[in-house]
Amino acid sequence: MSTPTPPTDFQSWLDYAIATMDPRGAHLDRIFSEDDIPSQDDIRAAAQEELDHLKQKAVMPWIGMLENWQIALSKRLGRSAEDIVEDNLLATDFSNDSVHVQFEDGTDLTFRRAFYVGETPADGAIHRVAVFTEHCGYHEFWIGPSDRISANSIPGARYKSSGEDLAWDSMAPVGREFGSPDFDRLMDEDAKKFASDLARWIQPCLSG
What we know:
three-stranded antiparallel sheet; alpha+beta; 42% helix; 6 strands
């Protein structure tokens, strides 16, 4: 049996179900048990908000990463968990540090301008960590007893002398444009910033 097409003006049956839901039962359940009773419109709006959030997470998967790790990120960065989830990670949250992951089979990964969160159990059991990078996305890994993850700190100035490092440091954090309703405006802003900074990036290469 093929799936029937959603009604006109609805992208999916779930959209239709939320728009036409009958919240009377949920409303009546609260009449004698709560002081602040939500109206039927409030209940329907709450359901719509949950659906919109699920759609947003599907388009922008890093939102789920931020939500899952918001407490650890808040402790690491000194920012509120709410601010991190709402505004994403910022360029100022990153330094020249890198993260190196080495697995038991010899596979290894190195992430530049990155940090990780997740504590290693005292008994060395398999545990989950999250690696956050400025330009290469957010990633989760399961680390086993024979795997290793480490952060390599680079002391000194934020910028290195190479033009490549200057270019990387000046890029907007990943996820800024993609999935945003302001995609065109953000892409235009980043393009203008790239053009204005091009001379500064080239100069170290010419004088190096």
